[in-house]
Structures are given as structure tokens and as C-alpha cells.
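User: Predict the full complex structure for these chains.
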Amino acid sequence: MNCKTCQELIHDLVDGSISQRDEFTLNTHLKDCLDCESVRQDLASIVAFCRTQRGQYEAPPNEQALWLRIRNVIEAELPNTVFVNAESRPSFFARLMGRSWELSLPQLVASTVAIVLVVSLATVVGLRRVGGYGSPAASPQQNEASNISNINDRIWQRRQVIDYWNQRVELNKARWSPEMRATFDRNLKTIDDAIATSVDELSRNPHDEISEQMLNESLNDKLTLLKDFSDL
Amino acid sequence: MKTRFFPRRSSSRAGVLAVGAIIAIIAVSFSAAAQQRLSKHYPANQNVRIELRNISGTIVVEAWNKNEIRLSATIESKGTNVTPRQINESFVIDVMSDNRGRGDVGDINFKLQVPVNSSVDLETRRGDIRVADIRSGLVRAHVSSEGDIELTNVSALHVIAQNVIGNIFFDGEFSTGGTYEFKSNKGDITIRIPGDSAFRLVAASPARRIALNDFWNNNFKTQDGRKYVGDVGDGRSSVSVTNFSGQITFMRR
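Assistant: Here is the predicted structure of the two-chain assembly.
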């Protein structure tokens, strides 16, 4: 028996569908041929692993060595094979293109589960970022908290600009007359009171359109006041 | 026997009063000497654009039937620059630019007499603004902080009046297709217009102090009295009134 016939029979042996006569001949060959014996052992371990680990994936022990041995056997079978020096590693692209993408059942299941998990996670994160709101089933308390958070975000964004102009005003304030300083402070306080009233109203009723309009206008007024007085 | 015309106590009181009067006269005369007065005439087209940017003080603009501008000003601080410029069709006074880097230069009270059809764009950091008898494309009065705004007998296509603290009074007409914006934070806004005015109104007052009086109709939509939106007549012009804590009142002229 030659190695080619032997390795064809190995599949039947592992499957348990080999005849007694073939099994005897095969065993005789395997005792003499270490390569074919190695192939048998590898194939038997793969099938055994798949049977025991059905439904869940766990990397086989020394997986890389296993695939290497299988590849060596296949290459040994090919005619006119050009043996590549084990020391020189092929490029990434060559390895990518040369790699076999056939997957075992556990690998396939594990890959599918991983893809489903990643896509679900990305969808949930994306929806939250784009929508800015919770799921439709979110409670009113959650929505209210989200709206208040949005209001605070908007105030915080405006506050960055307001802080800038406020610093400019503070730099020049010393040159103003006491009357001008008093006027500025009085007007700033009036606008700040209006902002506080609107924020207070919005915290009680986050969907109040008028309070939202007033808040926006008061923030604009404050910005205008600071800009106008920053030139003095 | 010596005769006294006044008791001694009265005599000392009279002396104190006399010294006080002398000090007051000297103070007033020094103050008057410190004040600068400016009065100039400038030729202008009938539809000239007036731009005035003041820092502090009163601005009065009145229309007259002459194609010229008369500028009168009292300047409180000595050395304050006021340099009017005529650029194309515009007459520009920019106190801020003329005195940049000098900080607060005190009050400057302006009075401008301008052609009836002048467009008027006025700004001040604080102080009252009064405009009368203008018929043009634009009347804008902006007080950055506090000061009353009074627009009397005004008929313009676009009117903007805005302050933070102070009353706003508009007495005039809304032109077809015009826009009118009145905004205050703390002060009353009163709008006095002809009874047959036609406009679309958006009025907001969180303090619920809106009185539309003769201009109210059943087509107005309101949100618990804090905002009124609706048409008066066929809504040919657009009117926006916003007041945070003061009263909004519409009156028939």
C-alpha cells in the first residue's frame, strides 16, 4: 500500500466505515510509515475534538503546530512542490492569500456568535450617540434626566464662550467709572436671574418651549452684553 | 445804644448760606467749563443712513424737512474725541472707535436733526434713545444695558428696539411687509399703532403680562398666557415682542 491510498483509507478509519481487510492493510502500513501515522493521529484528534466540543469553541492544544503538520502532509503529497525554507517567512499578503479559509463547525459557530455580538454592540452604541435619547421603552424619569443633561450641555457649551468674553471684560473693568461698573453689574445680574429662572423652569418641565426660548435669548443677551462692554 | 438789625444767630446762618452759594456757583461754572459743546451742520441726501455708536449718554434723533444734518453734542469729559464721518450715503459717528483704549470717556449727549427719510441705526452702552418723526427703511435702537427707548411717530420698514433694563415705547405704523422686533429683559414695552394695523404677532412674556387689548381676537393661540401667536387683520407685517419680566401692552393710536 502506498501513502496516497493509505491516507484515503484513514478518513474511513476515523469515520468508522472501513472494512476489516482494509483496516488490517492500513494498520500494517501505519506501523511502517510515520508520516501516515501522524496524519491519522491528527485527523483522529480533530474529529474527536469536534465531537466533544460541539456547540462551543475552544482552541485545540498547540493549534499552530497542528495546522503546520497538516499543511506539510498536503504539500508532501503535491507533485513538483517547491519547498520553502522554514527559516524565511512569507509576506503577510502571501500568507493571507495562501491561507485556507475553510472553517470547522465550532469555528464557524464561534465566528457567527462573535459577529452578531459586535454588530449588536455597535448598533446600540450608534443609536445612543445619534439619537441622544434612550430606547423607546425608557422611563419618563430617564428621558427627563436626559433632557436636563442636554440643557446643561448647552449651557456648558455657551459658558465656554461667555467665560472668554468675561475674562476680557474683567481685564478692562478697572478703567471704567464706578457708575459704569455698577450699571454693568446690575444688568449682568438681571440677565443671570433670567437664566436661572429659565433653567429652574426647565428642570421642572424639560419640554417647556417658552422657557427654552427664554433661556436661549438670555444666554445670547449675556453674550451681547459682555461683547459690548469688553471693548470699553 | 447800639441797634442790631439782625440777631447774631441769623447773621451767622446767612454767612454760611452765602459761602455755600459761592461754592455752588464756582462748581457749576467749573463743570460748564469742563463740558465741551459741539454743533455742526452737514449736507446730506434725503435718504441718508445715520449710524451712531455711543458709549454713554442720551441720543435724540429728530426729523426735519431739510436735506442736511445738524449735530449737537455735549461732551462731559475734556479731550474726548467725536469725529463724524461721511462715507458714501452714510453719516457715521463712532465714539467707541474714536476713543479706543481710553476706557470710559463719560457721558456724551447727542442731538441729531436729520432728513425725514433717513435710515437710523443707533447704539449705546447705556443711556436713553429717542427717535421722532422718521419715515424710512430702518430704525434701530440698541441699548446694551439700561436706558429707555422711545420711538415716536415712526414709520419704517424695519424697526428694532432692544435693551436689558428700561422701557420701550413705540408709537407709529407697521408698513406692509415690514418686520418689527421689540425686546427687553426688565421694563415695559408699549406699542401704540393705528386700529386698522395688519400684522402677524409673536409675543412672549414668561411673567404672563401681555395685554393685546383692541388687537386681541379669537384666532390667537396662547400657551398658558405666556405666549401669544396670531394674525391681526391679514398679517401683512411681522411683529415680535419679547419681555422677560415686564409688561407688553398694545394700544390703539
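Residues 140-172 of chain A form the longest helix (33 residues).
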